[in-house]
Write a structure and sequence with these properties.
Blueprint lengths: L10 E3 L3 E3 L4 H9 L5 E5 L10 H5 L2 H6 L4 E5 L10 H5 L2 H17 L6 E5 L3 H9 L11 E7 L9 H4 L5 E8 L4 H10 L18 E5 L19 H11 L10 E6 L2 E6 L1
Parallel strand pairs: 3-4, 3-5, 5-6, 6-7, 7-8, 8-10
Antiparallel strand pairs: 1-2, 1-4, 9-10
Helix pairs in contact: 1-5
Length: 267
Amino acid sequence: MSLTYDPDQPLFIAPSTRLRIDEAEKALDLCYQTGRPVLIYLHGRAKDVGEPRKSVNTGIYRELEAYGVAVLGFTWDADDSGYDENRAIASSDDFARLLKSLRSYLNSHDVQAPSLLAHSMGNIIVAEAAKDDLLGPAAGTLITNLILTSAAVKAKRHAKWLDLIEAAERIFVPVNTHDLVLGLAGIAFRPNMLGKDLKAPGARSPKVTYVDVSACKVNHRYFVPQGQNGHAGLKSLYAEWATGLPAHFNDIAVPDEMNGVPVLRVV
């Protein structure tokens, strides 16, 4: 089976199941039939590799599944050489259809809503969905934990779209001042990226738990163990987020602030 990006089959379940967007309820059913909590995964940029190939080849699906979840990947045309927001935005219609199918599935099945993890430029898709009112109160609860990790979206005024999200029970935004990938993106494309810097204006949404992971000395792919620098607390945190559990920060993080924004700092 080819792992090259296919716009006609944007849904992926490792190791070899590819589905059309109109088969989203079937994809959800396949995931829930495992008896595990479900995690929807929105990947980041996949320069010169494409998706789902990059996430498969680098073990991302395997490591996400090791948290104890069934992973439903939503793939988009990420095979560019820069920060091309339009590539992610172009997938918004398909993502809207996925959310609609998810609503239908949750209405007809007695299951826990999935968590959703967006990595890097995958966060642009979530931001567009919020701006298009696809995650507002009319959607009902679609997501338990919304994890916006290594978010390659502009930090400036990010609260404007985050404040629109009502469909997630909990929203987490990890921030890592040592993220070299986002640091370079911020220099090249300006302004700074949310996953690296919290700065005014619009630097805080009261709906969000901001988590400063800078002390862990990790880089960009710390949502899976291979990038967590052996930090057991970080692994535990992402396992709870992925499985839809409320996060337990005891002995993992302490209250602090970043540029005047309250954060929980992982120690």
